[in-house]
Amino acid sequence: MKYDTYIFDLDGTLLDTLTDLAASVNYALRTHDMPEHSIDDVRRFVGNGVRKLMERAVPDGAANPDFEATFATFREYYMLHSLDTTRPYPGIQEVLAELKARGCHLAVVSNKMMAATVELCRHFFSDTIEVAIGENEAEGIRKKPAPDTVFAALRELQNEPLTSVYVGDSDVDIATARNAGLPCISVLWGFRDRQFLLDHGATTFVSSPNELLD
Predict the structure, then answer these.
(1) What is the pTM assigned to this prediction?
(2) Which entry of 4, 9, 11, 171 is annotated as an active-site residue?
(3) CA-CA distance, 158 to 155, in Å (whole number)?
(4) Reduced to 3 states, what is the DSSP secondary structure of residue 192?
């Protein structure tokens, strides 16, 4: 089946953001005299939004009396350093350009902070990504795996989901696609491995961005 609309996850799908996320997490923890984490730890923590990321990183999570201050430090630091090492995965920009040239509509939905999602898409994908939606529950849009961000993107694109596909790298993305009634393509270059994705219901895989053009 050919798709005319592609809804992409951001972290681990289009962008390798892990190093900047880990650096921001550890800066916040260090600032508040908390133990730091390895990059592999942070890899396991991501996927459910930045608040959940910090709940997993901070000892005792949200119950820690210093949690809110640590979370605020993370947010402030990450907004200043989200472009330090973050880059598109090899081949992503070329594939997005080709999909765009074929007349496809492209959007990003993420559990990353709205401001960071918009800024990263503007910086790296201003010529290809038409709609970028991040975490914005204040507007009544629930974060993934709720389908709200997907539906919001489709509304902005003024497109029907019948010829749309969701592309992501995690169990959250698989569930999001299912909740939105869309097929899901799971990428194998992101933050989760094939077995993890299989265990969470993945059925269709791509091992390189070029396979999205097939």
Answers:
(1) 0.91
(2) 9
(3) 5
(4) coil
